[in-house]
Amino acid sequence: MSTETTGLGTPEDLTDAERGAVEAELRPLADGEFVLAERYTEWQVRAPTLESDLAISNIAQDELGHARLWYDLLEDFGYTEAALIWEANPEDFQHPTLVELPLGEGDWADAIVRGYLYDTYENLHLRALEGTSYPWIADRVGKVLAEEDYHTQHARNWLSRLCEDDPGRERVRKALDRLFPYALTLFAETEHEAAIVDMGIRTESLADMREEWLGVVVPHLDSLGLSVPVSEDGEVLVDLPDQVGTDGSHTEHWPELFEEFTHTYRELELGEPPRLLEDPDEV
Amino acid sequence: MAEQNPSSADDPTAGESGPTYCAYTDYSQDTPSETSLPATGKNASGTEQRVWDVLYEIEDPEMPVSIVDLGLIYGVRVVEESEATAGDDSSTDEEDIAGDAVGTPVAIDMTLTYTGCPARKMLTEEVEEEVRSIEGVSEVALELVWSPNWSLEMVTEQGRADLREFGLSVPEREEA
User: Fold this and answer.
1) What are the sequence ranges of the domains in chain B?
2) Structural domains in chain A, sorted by start
3) Checking CA distances to A220, which of A62, A78, B31, B129 falls within 20 to 30 Å?
4) How far apart are the first and last CA of chain B?
5) Any CB–CB contact under 8 A between B169 and chain A?
6) In the CATH scheme, what is the homologous superfamily, with its name and number, of domain B36-85+100-162?
7) DSSP string of A24-74?
8) Is the preceding omega at residue B38 within 30 degrees of 0, hence cis?
9) pLDDT for B88-135, tens place per residue?
10) Strand partners, B94
């Protein structure tokens, strides 16, 4: 625990402002992991080798596991899993829109580039949570970080492999051009950003994390022969998309994905109270 | 989040009930240090001993090894009788005590080998159910904790032997 920030209290002891800030920190994180996993699972049994089938399935499983750890902490505030996910409205979700975009059809490079951009960000984000003032987050960060190492390795290995020849690099370039502006949504602030940093819930601002992320991603992609729309002095040359996710705004692809993954929940009528007897009026 | 009412925790239609807290669990995050793990209940007695005995009987769903030997249990705390009844005005005469849930509450800290463990609910429910059925236990508060990270270092000698017999290659424990 950081020596400078006083630790926050138990879930029920938090002031409204503290609770608002903790929720604002957790919700985009939980949703981001969850929705990324949803997209990854589309690649299961379609990846280019059996090994990569297993890898992408395993990574998806990890991300679902991480989502569950963060949703758990929201449940401490009284929400249920059903309310947070299955019975929520699509606009309640706050994941950065990068993770909801449909995967380029049949384009393995998309899954890899997306994974690389996201995992590099996630790693920085988790490191900024290691010294968090909220003990319940602190308890979980180490575990999640340990599982993330492999994800970054997986993405980097595949990136190098795909960039070994021109056709492969061309695919990566196309995916990168499409995804890069959306990757900037990973650093879109919520109205609670100042409070999150002031209260020590996260020890680094999203703006600083963005700088750091660019410092990692740009030279690495450059070394693979890929150009990123960032000027020599670090200025990003593309605009942030209109829909950033963290404010509840989403792309036109999101309602469709939401509809799809909540389909079974609705089909099984899990939201309906069970009835032992038929309503006599309906017999 | 405005659409979501926290009171939906009481919603009986929810697929999974929210977390429940034992009134006696303190919220300090004094997670056990790595050196105090694995926790095995070596010097336990009375109710606590019975809790450990029951936990030893529960196996990992994928491997024939006890969850205690696997190192998943980070701590067991049996609330002492005096603590449990302190401040409880209603239990001043014997009749009332007999009328209340018999026994003392037990708090268990437990971890899982990885976050995406698909047996989480199955395993935690089994622990809660088995421990609750012990004579002298009135309620169980199981908390999943993630610090320190579970690792092979948490596996006991017996656990290592069991895993080897199962066919896994388990390195010798590093000398402390």
Assistant:
1) 36-85+100-162
2) 16-282 (1.20.1260.10)
3) A62
4) 49
5) no
6) Fe-S cluster assembly (FSCA) (3.30.300.130)
7) HHHHHHHHHHHHHHHHHHTTTTTSSSHHHHHHHHHHHHHHHHHHHHHHHHH
8) yes
9) 444 444 434 444 557 899 999 999 999 998 899 999 999 999 999 999
10) none
Residues recorded for chain B:
176
In this prediction, does ipTM exceed 0.85? Answer: no
**A80/B8 Cβ within 8 A:** yes
Name the nearest CA neighbour of A60 among B62, B120, B116. Answer: B116
Tokens of A242: 């209109």
Identity of the amino acid at B113: T
Task: Write down the pLDDT at residue A56.
Answer: 92
Cβ contacts of A66 on chain B, cutoff 8 Å: 115-116
Q: Which of A23, A143, A151 to mutate to test the interface with B (most CBs of B within 10 A)?
A: A143
Map residue B76 onto helix, strand or coil. strand
**Is any Cβ of chain B less than 8 angstroms from the Cβ of A149?**
no
Q: Could you tell me the two tokens for B88?
A: 């409880």
By Cβ distance, the residue of B6, B14, B116 closest to A82 is B14
